[in-house]
Amino acid sequence: MMKQISYQDLTNEFIDKVLNENNIITVPIDVEQVAKSIGLKVLDYPFQEDISGVLVINEDGATIGYNPNESSVRRRFSIAHELGHFVLHADKNSSGMFMDKLLFRKNITTYSTKEEAIEREANYFAANLLMPQELVISEVNKLNPNKDDEENIKVLAKKFDVSVSAMTYRLVNLGIYYK
Ligand SMILES: [Zn+2]
């Protein structure tokens, strides 16, 4: 039996490699550049419905579509999330599509357990890509200890160009912040 590679290992391996190869040492992470650096196209799609992002794979390659009507932090998270589907879940050799609704994070009850796991994994990937552990730690060390936590989290969210809730969740996951 081959040892199964976990999505966490795949995520961290991919991110270490892509940050190194693109010499990315500062934030915010240019998530579009990261996607393009591995050959994906990134386009704004004029979605009519409540779609936040899609990943389309066909004979021309892979394309991430994002909703231009969303805020910058949500667009960035959506692109990173779709990139997560590409790295972790997509069969690169056959045509297919992943489509994400705007409220997929809140509307999680409409997903089956397997779909839920896939969405959770893509969110894990997105959080790790937009807020890499080493860069989070180095920015946390620059914070003003006299400010309260909420203010400091806002400062970090702005630096990483992510939402305050995404930043908070990441800090809790890294064991840096206890609510
Ligand atoms: Zn998804």
TrEMBL record:
Q: Superkingdom of the source?
A: Bacteria
InterPro entries given in the database record = IrrE_HExxH, Rad_response_metalloprotease
Chain ranges passing through the membrane: none
A Pfam short name: Peptidase_M78
The IrrE N-terminal-like domain is annotated at 36-171
Q: Which PANTHER family match?
A: ANTITOXIN HIGA1, BLL0069 PROTEIN
The protein's name is ImmA/IrrE family metallo-endopeptidase
Species per Swiss-Prot/TrEMBL record: Mucilaginibacter jinjuensis
